[in-house]
Design goal:
17 strands, alpha/beta, seven-stranded mixed β-sheet, 17 helices, about 475 residues
Length: about 475
């Protein structure tokens, strides 16, 4: 243990901040080298004549800065970050936002961890539309977006329509993709401290973003048919959430689709407990089911979110929200406050893609490519327990003994394939352990790469995890 003692007469701010700054300075100067153990909090408090609580807050601050690590029963130690990869140097707060994926994916790997629309030569079509926009709207491109043409809303209403149901154009908000749209809704209808309902496993980046915005996550139970209505009602009665985020069809990552009776029950419960619903239909729109949307069953309290990222082109970052009546302006303002506003080029491009029919045509090409890849997955992974859909660009694989989700993910990485473990989709602190992984297959450019990835995974599944037991 080091004999280092800070001088709290130096620096500015509260004592605990000065303590943290002194520790950071000492680490940078080498006075506290990597591996050095900081003085026990009680001892340091006595030596400095301050409270243990003040020392604890100072230690917590340097822990958040990623400079030290704490081990219960052993103490607090200076971390060695000199030769570690960038992800290893993340402070705990940043790490909690990232999830289990690397911030920068390692190069040279097969990307089975992304569900972006496959490459079906959309580039030529996008180039043509962008060139036309630059020709037709040079002044609009050069400035901020100050006006919203009617056809932007018409395009969104058309893209989000399903079956015989379509939202009204005046209820549409163009957004910077689905994620931005979801966060605009959450911030528009809730306040910091309000509770948002998520399934235990879901698109967890929304729950992390909501937490960053000061909203609290509560988890609801689900099964192979989606959210369990009785559990949702119990949660509403006990926790009083303001909004719930659900995927009624092709849920990510489980691929669950709610039957009609559950959809009706969820909407009825939301009505009785005054809970707003956010329905993410990105994957549902790709797997047409003869089932009404939550937005059709409960239009007065459901925000329907969709976009182009999974079925047309992820790089376009285009999306829309269909709002309950009289809420579009509030969501539009929240979206601007959260994102800085939507660029004219992007919104106009998305509208032209939809209204020209090109978005529907490209979606058809993407659907055919995804179906071919899903068929390959079924062939290569035959005999194993998995859930997939011919129109959805990922599958949900149950791992045979003795594989664990994180261990299998690391083994696949070692063999050159990036996949997602189940922890990536946990919306909050959950004790659920399913021993499953999500395998996405739309990002590789060529089928040969897809085949190679599936062959690697098949080999790992057949050989078992004995050779990887030591991998965390």
């Amino acid at each position: 243990m080091t004999n280092w003692l800070p001088d709290l007469s130096q620096g500015k701010g509260p004592i605990y901040v000065r303590l943290a700054d002194q520790i950071e300075t000492a680490i940078a100067a080498g006075s506290l080298p990597a591996g050095a153990k900081l003085p026990p909090q009680r001892n340091l408090a006595y030596d400095l004549g301050i409270t243990i609580g003040t020392v604890s807050r100072g230690y917590a601050l340097v822990h958040e800065r990623g400079l030290v690590s704490g081990e219960v029963g052993r103490g607090t130690f200076v971390r060695d970050t000199r030769d570690a990869p960038p992800e290893a140097n993340l402070d705990p707060v940043t790490a909690s936002l990232v999830g289990t994926r690397a911030i920068t994916p390692p190069p040279g790997k097969i990307r089975f961890d992304s569900t972006a629309a496959p490459d079906v030569d959309q580039g030529a079509c996008l180039q043509s539309h962008i060139a036309a926009i630059l020709r037709d709207h040079p002044a609009d491109i050069a400035s901020y977006t100050r006006s919203f043409p009617d056809h932007w809303f018409t395009a969104g209403a058309r893209w989000l329509s399903k079956g015989d149901w379509a939202p009204a154009p005046q209820d549409i908000v163009p957004t910077l993709g689905a994620h931005a749209g979801i966060m605009a809704v959450i911030t528009a209808v809730t306040a910091p401290g309000d509770k948002v309902v998520f399934e235990h496993l879901t698109y967890s980046q929304v729950s992390r973003a909501a937490g960053l915005a000061g909203r609290r996550t509560v988890l609801v139970e689900s099964d192979a048919k989606g959210v369990i209505p009785e559990e949702f009602e119990r949660l509403c009665a006990q926790q009083h959430p303001k909004v719930a985020f659900f995927m009624s069809s092709a849920q990510n990552p489980t691929l669950a689709t709610m039957p009609l009776e559950r959809r009706k029950a969820i909407v009825d419960i939301a009505r009785r407990y005054s809970v707003w619903l956010i329905e993410d239909d990105l994957y549902g729109a790709m797997s047409p089911e003869p089932l009404p949307l939550l937005a059709e069953l409960g239009p007065e309290r459901t925000f329907l979110v969709g976009g182009l990222s999974k079925s047309v082109a992820a790089g376009v970052r285009g999306g829309w929200v269909a709002c309950p009546p009289h809420f579009a302006q509030r969501v539009r303002i929240a979206h601007k406050m959260m994102t800085g506003g939507i660029p004219f080029l992007l919104a106009e491009l998305c509208a032209r893609l939809v209204l020209s029919g090109d978005a529907t045509r490209i979606r058809g090409l993407c659907a055919a490519e995804i179906a071919a890849r899903e068929a390959l997955a079924r062939t290569y992974l035959s005999g194993f327990d998995l859930v997939s859909h011919p129109a959805v660009p990922f599958l949900w694989l149950a791992l045979p003994d003795p594989w664990l989700s994180g261990t299998f993910k690391q083994a696949a990485l070692t063999e050159g394939v990036l996949i997602d473990d189940e922890d990536e989709f946990k919306a909050g602190r959950s004790e659920k352990v399913l021993h499953r992984v999500r395998i996405s297959f739309s990002s590789p450019r060529h089928l040969d790469e897809v085949r190679a990835g599936f062959a690697v995974l098949r080999r790992l599944l057949e050989n078992g995890g004995a050779g990887y037991d030591s991998i965390a």
